[in-house]
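Researcher: Hi, I'm a grad student and pretty new to this. My advisor asked me to get structures for two proteins we've been looking at. I'm not sure of the right format, so I'll just paste the first sequence and hope you can take it from there.
Model: That works fine. Here's the first sequence with its structure tokens right after it:
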Amino acid sequence: MNTGYVKFYRKITKSFVWTDPYTFKLWTLCLLKANHKDNKFLFNGEEIEVNSGQFVTGRAAITKELNEGAKGEHRMTEASVWRRLKKFEKEEMLNIDSTTKYSVITIKNWHEYQVSEQQVNSDRTTGEQRVNTNKNEKNLKNDNNIINNNPLRFYELNGYGSIAPLTIQKIEGWVTDITKTGTSEEEANQLIIRAMEFGVTSNKRTWNYVNKILINWEQRGLNTIDKIEAAEAERQASQQEKPTKQYRSNNSHARQESLPNWADDEYEEPEDEVIDDTEFKKRLERIRARKGAANE
């Protein structure tokens, strides 16, 4: 695997493979490991024959090879690697033929993309060319659908920032948990994207906010888009039915305030009281006496 080369085509940038560095790295490794010609070799003490475009591996073996030289936080688990390989198989990028000891992985359309054009033209019939063209058109449509249904892609394109490896694992964990409730993987991805859309409309573009939404939906049993839309419509309807606060104009319910006497139009000021010096001194002494008692 230290010599030779493989071809990459520009349309890979439109594929879900491009949106996730770990997925891209694994797909690259698969292409590099595939044999360019028929071959025989030993794997775990057993002689195995493979054709061009095939290679033999196992969960532990390919994970070890993928993690070689990677820092701890960038290493992938066997489960994560195998989940991505099954994703490749689902998207008709490869086939996996497993036994109890090993798996033979076949890259689909290997001769179409990796063999030289001269060899392809000499080996293929007109009928094969037509079949491969139809497959390529189907794969291109699948790639476009995947982009529109990829939470990782949505995350990075809608203001959440660069996606961290830990966040990728959490998103994949949610997909796994949601599918366990009977929801398809495609709808599980749409559900996560829906939660992210709420984050965008609320201007709270963080994974913690999205995660809280997903937890709330899980607790309420909302595991499909239809259920979520129905719950949201019910919530909006209930908000519209709530009465708005209004100030009453009825005098019987209005706050009563007492106005000072001088505010009355009929109010007349009292005349000043006239007292003599003797009376004034008596009142002054009483005031002083009260103050003296208060100070004691």
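Researcher: Oh nice, that was easy. Here's the second one.
Model: And its structure:
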Amino acid sequence: MTGHDDGVAAHGRAVAATLDRARVELGSLDRAVYQAVASTPSPTIDRAVGQISNAANYSRLWMVTAGILSATGPKRRRAALIGLAAVGATSAVSNLVVKPVMSRGRPERTESVRTRGVRMPESHSFPSGHTASAFAFSSAVGGELPALATPLRLMATTVAYSRVHTGVHYPGDVVIGALLGAGIGTATRLLAHRGGWAVVSGR
């Protein structure tokens, strides 16, 4: 091995060590934020946040929203269908690809009034599927209907926070879930336009 090769190998080891330290530090920060949320009393909002979290189970919140949109005109019907397609694609990627690969365990939460009524899922924790679906729908539909973009993203953000608040996800799970969902939602919308979904727009 030449001196140049030795230098490249040493640089590679240094980069790997730095990335490993960063991973450990980010994990510590993630758990610290989770514990900060869990240890902060919030009895006024606990029940409402739990209800929001449960409303998003099996993407029911987004299916209901899509149903309402579909009943208000062809343009909104098209947006709703694109949004549901984005949710389907995101759920598949999150649950069938990313979760099994990452295999992150769920948080060890303390049972309380805050967590009561919100079931701890048996699937892996990373990323948050609820959050991914929420941002997939809000990104896809918000791109089609700009007037609804902000309200939908606020809804998605509330769902994301609810998963940390109720103790079923670490903050990092929802951050990556949001990025994954937003990316797939945007891609689904672009593919729908490229594919010419004229039939669902009523034209």
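Researcher: Is there anything I should tell my advisor about the second?
Model: You could mention this: The helical segments are 3-38, 43-55, 60-70, 74-102, 129-144, 146-165, 171-195.
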